[in-house]
Amino acid sequence: MDAAACAEEFRRRLDAAADATESALDALLAPAPLPGEIARPARLLEAMRYSSLGGGKRLRPFLVIESARLFGVVGEAALRTACALEMIHCYSLVHDDLPAMDDDDLRRGRPTTHKAFDEATAILAGDGLLTYAFDVVADPKTHHDAGVRAALVLALARAAGLGGMVGGQALDLAAETAATPLTLEATLQMQAMKTGALLRFAVDAGGILGGASVSQARALTRYGEALGAAFQIADDILDAEGDSAALGKRAGKDAERGKATLVGLLGLDAARARRDSLVAEATAALRETGLGEATDILAEAARFVAARRN
Amino acid sequence: MDAAACAEEFRRRLDAAADATESALDALLAPAPLPGEIARPARLLEAMRYSSLGGGKRLRPFLVIESARLFGVVGEAALRTACALEMIHCYSLVHDDLPAMDDDDLRRGRPTTHKAFDEATAILAGDGLLTYAFDVVADPKTHHDAGVRAALVLALARAAGLGGMVGGQALDLAAETAATPLTLEATLQMQAMKTGALLRFAVDAGGILGGASVSQARALTRYGEALGAAFQIADDILDAEGDSAALGKRAGKDAERGKATLVGLLGLDAARARRDSLVAEATAALRETGLGEATDILAEAARFVAARRN
């Protein structure tokens, strides 16, 4: 594919993944209780729907779906895994927005969950989404092979927990009130945990679902790590130079809060150069999977992540 | 076993389960990151340890361990499942104690996690414990059969989430501010979700680990449901008549807050009678497993739960 066709095909698949994820999340968050559930309380369910439906580019679901497709896996297996990951991403936004954390009133141009409902409901909606993610992955509907389901649960929990996303958020909050700013190394580690771990899981999940070889799985992980780092550095660049309207949230607030950002540590030019080299690294890792042109869409995803305006 | 010997053996095994759970949780929450974890941030880990170590009767771990033992399953499989369940129980206490929820300063006679640390750390410690529970269960160290691990994850998520514990907490909070008090039926459903679902999972887990027959699994579930209901009604009775020192938390506060309790709905005498009939129901369900005297300890557990003073 030439560059223009590839970019177009990428947008088409990103939109398709977003639509499929939206429909699947809507169905998963239906009012009827599943076997073993006693009831689905209406207001809590509404808050979980508010927190997860109708928003975002669905980049993580796209990455699950396209990584799985590399190995010929399409349909429910990838889509349900994508939904589980998106639930975890969305719960993290709900909890991060709470008054005790980042204290944000606005998310994707809408009131945050604790503003639209109340703080207790937002905490519980987050807890509910996090818990449901593991339900969805462990359900036999996701994959006939329990070994695959258990491996997905383990990888997802490890990416999302103490040693991944939750730990990264703790480090990020601690940095705000620390006497000395984070070093470059500590900032990179914090970002790899807070943002990188879930993005890495997205592509690892494709390999787990598709039965990737050890060397393919390693290459995918390297792609996921480079993509995650590029994503975060692009985020820092956007926060430094972006405008609030395009972002759907207030720009410049990371710097105001004294949050550790790579732009603050490196300056804008060096941050941009680093971002571009991460995209090259991601693309090189894809070549090492030996899957040829099938990986073009994921390479385009790395370019998109680095160049995005919101 | 005669009644006195059975009560003594019960206390011995309850203490043994508590000791084993404490050691296993301590090891699971060690500073060294697991494969796939990037780092374990010290303060967050400390908050997770504070929230889960050194406290409680460890009733849920005991129930997992003793239910599994009915089928000859002992050792790591039951102990790790017990730890996962206890992590979920402990996270729920941390989040329930938050200012936006029950706003409690004291838990088991110690400052609650958000008092000992801070609110953001308490939210994240809860999220971390919840996530880690699924990591522990899905890990091949828990059971060689991925089918068992995936079944445990699914049952645990369903008991803990929207249609179980989290949903029950949402209903309980909603009842506090509702214009009309909950009916008896609605109160029973709320309690079955908030408290019952995890207790039921504890004994269901034993059946999953042990490969119980369908009829045995059904009988265990009936035992777990009756035990859970007896536990909650005993809790309501304790809150109505108990003293704060024995409880390790303030007595009478449920009634003050207008929380739905069975004592409020039925009166003390009828609540006590209902509690006793639930114990009988639990004991009858155990007989239906066909496992004979092996179930004596679990029958004693039902009596203990109903008669406890804290």
Task: Outline the structure in words.
Two copies of one chain form a homodimer. Chain A has helices at 3-28, 42-52, 59-69, 76-96, 113-116, 119-138, 146-160, 165-177, 184-210, 214-241, 244-247, 253-256, 262-266, 268-287, 296-307, and strands at residues 106-107, 110-111. The first copy, chain A, is mostly helical and 310 residues long. In chain A, a hairpin with a 2-residue loop joins strand 1 and strand 2. The longest helix of chain A has 28 residues, at 214-241. Chain A is globular, with a radius of gyration of 19 Å. The mean pLDDT of chain A is 93. The interface between A and B is large, with 64 and 64 residues.
Offer a quick outline of the entry:
Chains A, B: Keywords: Isoprene biosynthesis, Magnesium, Metal-binding, Transferase. The first copy, chain A, is mostly helical and 310 residues long.
Biggest beta sheet attributes of chain A = 2 strands, antiparallel
Average pLDDT of chain A works out at: 93
Taken as a percent bin, the fraction of beta residues of chain A is: under 5%
Structural class assignment of chain A: mainly alpha
Q: What fraction, in percent, of the residue positions of chain A are helical?
A: over 70%
For the largest interface, the chains and their residue counts are:
A-B, 64 and 64 residues
Taking the alpha carbons of the first and last residues of chain A, their distance comes to 26 Å
CATH superfamily of chain A: Farnesyl Diphosphate Synthase
